[in-house]
Write a structure and sequence with these properties.
Blueprint (H helix, E strand, L loop, with lengths): L9 H18 L4 H14 L29 E3 L17 E6 L3 H18 L2 E3 L2 E2 L10 H5 L2 H7 L5 E3 L4 E4 L2 E4 L3 E3 L7 H15 L1 E4 L13 H14 L4 H15 L5 E4 L4 H7 L7 H14 L7 H6 L7 H11 L7 E4 L7 H10 L3 E2 L7 H7 L2 H14 L2 E4 L6 H12 L10 H12 L6 H9 L25 E3 L14 H18 L13
Parallel strand pairs: 2-3, 2-4, 2-9, 3-5, 8-9, 10-11, 10-13, 11-12
Antiparallel strand pairs: 1-14, 6-7
């Protein structure tokens, strides 16, 4: 395997061991800049032999095959329950309000967690609030972005959802039920919801959790809970019809001329400031980034060369172009750019545009008037999300802290293992540093060695820090002709399940008038 792979020859092992021993002494005396250079040298040494040739042969990848979905080994998406999953009781323990802060995709993750939290507490969920004071300064709200009727209807066998808190009567007067405000711990365990939160809910009748970003742990040892998250994320959360129509129009126009790739080019002010990657900019631009960082992020000393050496800097547009060219994509490749305003302007885009001139974004495709009216703030992010989801190939340039990239990758995996090119920035960093220092021999082969070792969107084990929302395998997937019974596909998918339950509900109401609460379990 690429990461941690042993060197091909014992001699190389001994040399690397000796070199590592020397490093420990050297680090005690050397400056930061020299240390970083040494890190890059070692990283290159681990993949290049002394004669300059690669340590192992490059895995052959046919670029034309990347336009198709990744091999799946018989796996397919499946988030229907596989054990008894009773519908929510008629009487809940109270009402749950949440305020989802952040951008569109951070809010999307919070909505999934809110539904799961409501299920855990047997609570009635109030339609989640989307923070109007988020990065986008957009007050569209849940109803302006998502199809509310579809959301509530899709989850009716999982949780009860209402659009607002009910009125109560106090001293003969009607007034809105007031929710008790709580601040959940970050990545709170399930036990917090079944104890502290539930206690306050029963005491007050309703609780208001704010903020609600990353407030429920991701790794839960309960596959049914995880599958509920997938039902929310990939089935219930559907954008409003006008967003879907606009997104499909853009995709159809791009695909009319053949395959197209979508790239999330995260070379924007907020992410560059967050990452601490400022040295490549002029003094005026550096001052802007430092000011933004000071105002928005915790104070921390960040050294650009160190950050870049460990893969913490977003790829530049030129680096993205060089990666694609090394992989074998030619200048006829059509690329859709999902990005805000790129920091540094055209001088950073020009090298990329020279390599790949067929670039589009949501402002250059389709009727200008309609796009101008519908692609601002959260709406624009929603359109970009759908185009990236439906693209033949998706390439994020800065995953990890990017909720957009993580969610799109996870959705594409669930959507049928659609090809994703996910650069390993840490492995690529020394290769780019060497090129900048004039060492261009073997550059493209070194890039291919890194890039051709990727999964390209196929099923793979989730390893931290990879998020559940980036990779919900195996919980939300099943395997045809599975050897492990736990991986066997259930007899029904989500659509079949809802149809059957709806029929059972109708049949029950026709045969048992005024019947008592439904208590039967879903056993599939």
């Amino acid at each position: 395997m690429r990461r941690g792979e042993a060197l091909g020859r014992r001699g190389a092992h001994r040399q690397l061991k000796q070199l590592s021993g020397g490093i420990r002494v050297f680090l005690g005396r050397s400056s930061v800049a020299v240390c970083v250079l040494l890190i890059c040298t070692i990283s290159l040494y681990s993949t290049i032999r002394s004669d300059g040739r690669p340590n192992r042969s490059v895995k052959q990848v046919n670029v034309d095959e990347l336009w198709e979905t990744a091999p799946n080994d018989g796996w397919r998406p499946s988030s229907a329950p596989r054990s008894k999953w009773p519908p929510p009781p008629n009487e809940s323990n109270g009402y749950l309000r949440v305020r989802c802060n952040g951008g569109l995709n951070q809010q999307r993750t919070a909505i999934c967690n809110a539904v799961l939290a409501a299920r855990i507490m047997n609570a009635t969920l109030v339609l989640p609030e989307l923070d109007a004071n988020s990065f986008w300064h957009d007050d569209s709200g849940f109803k302006g972005i998502y199809d509310v009727e579809h959301f509530i209807n899709s989850l009716r066998y999982d949780v009860k959802i209402v659009e607002s808190l009910p009125d109560i009567r106090v001293n003969g007067k009607a007034k809105k039920l007031k929710a008790f405000q709580l601040r959940p711990p970050r990545d709170a365990p399930v036990s917090w919801y079944t104890t502290a939160a539930l206690e306050k809910m029963k005491e007050h009748g309703a609780i208001y959790l704010t903020p609600f970003s990353h407030r429920l742990e991701e790794e839960i040892d309960n596959a049914e809970y995880q599958r509920l998250r997938c039902r929310v994320n990939y089935h219930a959360l559907q954008f409003k019809p006008h967003i879907m129509k606009l997104s499909n129009m853009i995709v159809n126009k791009l695909r009319a001329q053949g395959h197209f790739m979508a790239i999330h080019l995260r070379f924007e002010m907020d992410m560059l400031a967050f990452a601490g990657c400022v040295d490549i900019f002029n003094k005026k631009e550096q001052a802007i980034l430092k000011k933004y960082r000071k105002e928005n992020f915790a104070e921390k000393e960040l050294v650009y060369n160190e950050r870049r050496a460990i893969g913490k800097c977003p790829l530049t547009p030129e680096e993205v172009g060089l990666i694609l060219r090394a992989m074998g994509f030619d200048n006829s490749t059509r690329i859709y750019l999902a990005a805000g305003e790129l920091f540094g302007g055209e001088r950073f885009m020009k090298p990329f545009r020279t390599l790949f001139p067929h670039l589009e974004n949501h402002s250059t495709v389709g009727p200008a008037e309609e796009l101008a009216a519908n692609t601002r703030g959260l709406l624009g992010s929603a359109v970009d999300y759908m185009v990236c989801l439906l693209a033949d190939i998706f390439m994020p340039t800065y995953d990890g802290p990017s909720n957009f990239a993580n969610n799109v990758m996870g959705h594409r995996l669930y959507y049928g293992f659609r090809t994703t090119i996910q650069p390993d920035r840490k492995a690529l960093a020394p290769i780019f540093v060497a090129r900048e220092n004039g060492e261009t021999a073997g550059f493209e082969e070194a890039v291919r060695r890194v890039m051709y070792s990727l999964e390209f969107g196929g099923p793979h084990k989730r390893v931290r820090p990879e998020s559940f929302y980036t990779n919900s395998w195996p919980e939300c997937f099943c395997q045809m002709s599975a050897k492990n019974p736990a991986d066997q596909c259930p007899s029904e998918n989500i659509a079949d399940l809802n149809s059957r339950l709806q029929w059972e509900e109708t049949d029950d109401s026709e045969n048992v008038q005024n019947s008592s609460n439904r208590t039967e379990s879903i056993d599939i």
